[in-house]
Write a structure and sequence with these properties.
single chain, about 210 residues, 12 strands, about 30% helix, Immunoglobulin-like
Length: about 210
């Protein structure tokens, strides 16, 4: 299983120590090597869990047979020797108070013959298999579980950003009000001075007339 950062699957996703930003699009690829052209890769189910051992932790289904989460985009499945899908980085509720949310991807994978892949993808042809091997029978193999490395996601900082923006706006508004008040006071002082000078001049003229 490989993770990429672009829809063309050319740039591998390197997850920083502090995690990727929330809602960053993650592109997943499961590819089979050393296969003849007779077989294709088919993802039966992919899900995320907070443990590398999915049976021991909470999980979230990205897609299951005949259904997928609305945030998951299936790009290719059962049509070639690779399967591809994408989803936005998210956080588990159990880790909401943690700075970094860490989880793993798991994909239940099969190999199917090109002549049977289309039929097997139909909902009424799905069958449960208990043994996780790659033995081919009736044109489709049993399942194999593939797990990714840890995916780390940062906490959502949008609320903090909004608060900072609001605080900054209020500060700018306060500064603007202070400047406006200063200008108004200066105008009043000038008007008062001019009025006083005019009053003195008028008083002197009045005395001369007497």
């Amino acid at each position: 299983m490989q993770l990429f950062k672009d829809v063309n699957y050319t740039t591998p996703l390197v997850i920083p120590a502090l995690g990727v930003e929330l809602r960053t699009r993650i592109y997943v690829q499961v590819i089979a090597a050393n296969l003849t052209s007779q077989y294709h890769v088919l993802l039966d189910r992919c899900y995320a869990s907070i443990s590398a051992l999915p049976s021991n932790s909470t999980f979230f289904n990205l897609f299951v047979p005949c259904s997928q989460d609305q945030m998951t985009t299936m790009l290719e499945n059962g049509n070639s020797q690779k399967a591809r899908f994408s989803f936005p980085a998210f956080r588990f509720i159990e880790q909401q108070n943690q700075t970094i949310s860490t989880y793993y991807l798991h994909c239940i994978t099969r190999l199917c013959e090109t002549s049977t892949c289309t039929q097997f993808k139909q909902c009424n042809r799905r069958r449960r298999r208990d043994i996780q091997t790659t033995t081919i029978k009736d044109g489709v193999s049993d399942t194999t579980l593939i797990t990714s490395g840890p995916i780390r996601t940062q906490a959502d900082s949008s609320l903090t950003t909004k608060e900072e923006a609001l605080s900054s706006a209020q500060k700018d508004s306060g500064n603007g009000a202070s400047v406006g008040l200063g200008i108004a006071l200066a105008v009043l002082v000038i008007v008062g001075t001019v009025a006083a000078l005019m009053a003195v001049s008028f008083y002197r003229k009045l005395r001369m007339l007497r």
